[in-house]
Amino acid sequence: MKRREFLKRSAPAVTLPFLMGGVPIRAIGKSSFFEQFVTTGEENNRILVLVQLNGGNDGLNTIIPLDQYSNLFNARSNVLIPEEKVISLIDDTGLHPSMSSVHSLFQEKKIGILQGVGYPNPNFSHFRSTEIMVSASDADEVIKTGWLGRYLDRDYPEYPEGFPNDNTPDPLAITMGAIVSTTCQGPITNMGIAISRNDALYNLNGEDFGEVPDNNYGHELSFIRQTQLQTQLYLQTVSDAASKAQNLSSLYPEAGENTLADQLKIVAQLIAGGLQTSIYVVSLGGFDTHAEQIQMGTGTDTGLHADLLQKLSDAILAFQDDLNLLGHEDRVVGMTFSEFGRRIRSNISYGTDHGTSGPVIVFGTSVNPILQGDNPEIPASLDQEDNLPMQFDFRSVYGSILKDWFCVDEQVISTLLFRDFQYLPVIKTDNVTGLEDEITDASPLGQNYPNPANNFTTIKFRSSGGHLEVSLFDFQGKKIETFINKNIPVGEHELRIDTGSLRNAIYYYQMKHANKVFTKKMVVQR
Amino acid sequence: MKALTPEAVRKLITGRSHPPKQSNNFESGSQKKVSSKRQEKARTDTGLEPYSGSWGNQEIAHLLRRTTFGINFNDLANVSSMTLPDLVTSLLQDETLPDPPLNVRDGYTGVPIGQTWVNKSGDFDFNQDKLYSLGAWTMGHMVHQNLTLREKMALFLHNHFVTQVEIVVEARHLYSYNNLLREYALGNFKELTKQMTINPAMLVYLNGNLNEVGAANENYARELFELFTIGKGEQIGEGDYTNYTEQDVLAAARVLTGWVNDYLVNTSNYISEKHDKGDKQFSSAFDNVVLSNNEEQEYIDLIEMIFSKKETARFICRKLYRWFIYYTIDDQVEQQVIDPLAQIMVDNDYELKPVLTTLFNSAHFFDEANRGCLIKSPLDLTIGFFRQFNVAFPDNADLINQYANWRFVYLLALLQEQRLGDPPSVAGWPAYYQEPQFYQIWINAATLPFKRDLTNFFTLGPGYESGDFILGIDPIAMAESVSQPSDPNILIQELIDLLYSIDLIQDQKDFLKEVLIPGLPDFEWTVEWNNYKSDPDDPNKLAAVSSKLRALFSTMLSMAEYQLS
Known about the structure:
heterodimer; A: about 525 residues; alpha/beta; Immunoglobulin-like; 2 domains; 4-stranded antiparallel sheet; 13 helices; globular; B: about 575 residues; mainly alpha; two-stranded antiparallel ribbon; 26 helices; about 50% helix
């Protein structure tokens, strides 16, 4: 059966023609030229880390609208944080007192916050709402693929056929945990792999498969588990990456104390170890705080929810610190999401029931370090069922990250998300590349500046003397123009390129010199 | 409808046209040697005495798993009140032979679709159509088997008296061979051996049809001793294998001269002129017996001679042991199980029922040391999955598609290196004879990822679509077979009890619950399930629980424990 036929039958939504600059995207991945560039060079790929908060985080006790405090008190006095303990974030907006780590990152301009992220016609089922969030569907449509799975499938339409290969030796996406995240579910297979406790990485770090009984059953079970381990296609590359780098931050809690920090620690190790994986999914559970989300007797700023936020906040801080020390901070952006927020009114069990929209936290040096959205308005009198209105559709956050972080064309994003989206400045756009334009010993070809280019851009390069060629290619590997093709004297040079006639897209420029080829990616965006 | 190729099925299931290239994940030095860690197991000294331990769902499931191609919750419930002896008797009940395979292909113009071809002579041009029909039909019996031993024994006999479709080719011969396996699955092994010796498919397969006076072809005679009856013993001299000698092979070949198959009538004929009428002198292994000319009855004399030796019964019992219990046969098993079982076989003149009745009622069969240690063959695993999940196949009204779906199952097993009808050699599948790996041969770097892709294909996706039919699981129906599906702990535990032989440890159960309800307290499952039950037509509520169930099934079926029976 042809794959396209399969797609048509199993997931009609993704057979929409993916067009980028008039070129069918599906053709792109077939070009080995393209794949070669995607993984070419030093560790220069961009990375997105999704932090899934399972259970539905109580947003009103996370990002606290201080200007609504008296009405909030009416609605949820038994769980509300004392006003004087709330950390002031900006103006009338505060943070849960457990989140001092996030606060300090915010001051360092490494945190962005969006208030009121949700979707129309909210569903109060954990499972359905999670499915909606990971598939980026409307509330009333069931879509089996995940939004990042579709994104990856666009670039790697043949996956898993022929993977891993020399050009793409690393997993496309990694979930830390039990099963591979549905976020990465592509039309034919999940585009990612999961690394769990029972799996390669942990095992190579010295843990065993767990106890097996000393009998025939145990003997056969060990054999099968060992073979399972050996047949993990990405075992070698992942464990190699893990062995190449060590975490440098001292801020990580003891192993086992903060599962989220444990997961992010491995993510940092893999990034620093050179894994070219661009998507990681980590998770923290326990946010389904129907009862006793606060510790009675010791104050509403203590207890279950406070502990969870503390874990979240401390884990992000340690991760950022680690990435900074490891020198990879500019390549990584993180984003939290949860299937829903919680009800405005608390219940009599000192907890909160399933709600609707909530805050999203983005982190990293490349995020736009601002608070977006207004404090929600809390009415003076509320029914138990009343919920927060939505300010931003969650798909606008996804779309904006795809656009500014993964440089995906807006038209393409609309097909990936099945709709146009409202652009939000989630990522700093003056820092689109996150890469320095310096030329180094390792790469005598610099990053173009500015990037994205508007009408002009400049490329620095260094010649060691002799013949040198610089050319520009489109995404499919088709040569557009050769700028230089002659002997160039020793030294640093600058090449100014007129990009005014190029359409908005991703390009590659390549320098051939002294028997070596150097390649960089550039974006044209007007 | 276009017939599926193995390549197309692989692509459908895995997304790959070829098995993935394996990177050399382990340096040879760092590879853990499981076998080296193995110690002599503390064993109980159970033998054939009747089992008297606890008799509950675990024991029932153990018995049914080993004697059938898989059970579902209904099967378990249906027999839950039976005693062990009654259940064994029920498993060993006789069944009428199935109706013959039908033509399902337009291109076969000689026989209308829906009519059988087995009595129609000629039509050699349509052999492929007949083979397609026969292969699917055979699979159909296994998939839709009753709760009896027949199908598992028929496959045992196929693996024992091997023929290969690729070599025999002729479909009607192969049909008669298949019928023989089912007819004698619970019958008399000696009688079966006699029938098999002159079965037209076997005559073709091991060149019996070329064996004639003056030009003896030893092929069948050799395998008759070595693989089908008494087995090769230690070589104690030139051409002397303890249980038989080269002289015996040649003598037996001469006994068997004169038999030829008839392609047109689908039978075998004795042709006296081709028969060697001289005396056949056997070795001391057979007490220096001389078989004299007895024309078309002479092969019977040969079989009787071989079966007069108890070693023949021992050899057959060892093969039964490796099929139903485990592959390691140590001295203790030899003395306490094999030998007394062989005696029962001899005492009952090679009737299989008394032997199997004793074995399945025995303490040894239910010994903890023998539970969960049998690695499922691809047929066990694949058919077992469809049976456990009660997957519906197209019915007789949709005959063409029914056969196509059976054929699909055949291809799934083929892609795991078990081709029904075509064991790799006359010795059968290596998993049942190849030392020291035995069952472990089924598990390798190519088959294991495919098994995971296969179970994921069915648990996570809609299944296999052919025409208007979808071969797939119903996750809700599966959950509703559990006594209390709204309770996540009961749901998971009962699935464990059905799908695995040995209970999981608590860490694993927690892990599975994390898959079902990630980061959530137990009651949230109950809430979601009850929401669905109160409004089962709401697609959102259906999607909520079914997607979680699918994730759970997928995880459970990808665990190493699922490979064990």
